[in-house]
Amino acid sequence: MKRIQDWYPLVITLLWVLSIFLVDPIGDFPLNDDWSYGKAVKNLVVEGQFQLTDFTAMPLLSQVLWGSLFCAIFGFS
User: Fold this and answer.
1) Is 44 exposed, middle or buried (0-12, 13-18, 19+ CB in 10 A)?
2) pTM score, two decimals?
């Protein structure tokens, strides 16, 4: 006979799979501070000026330029 502790990994795995089906985490949406970086890229692509938000915690020049390169080719989304 198994102990209840032996079932913990199975229960946690089943709860994780259930939460994936309930939440459906597939889509185009920002996580955490992604919106701040996306806004800086959009400002550079659309308005032509490098402008960070007050929320941004670090200088992002290289990341914004890299993102702008892809947005210039594929468009901002």
Assistant:
1) buried
2) 0.55
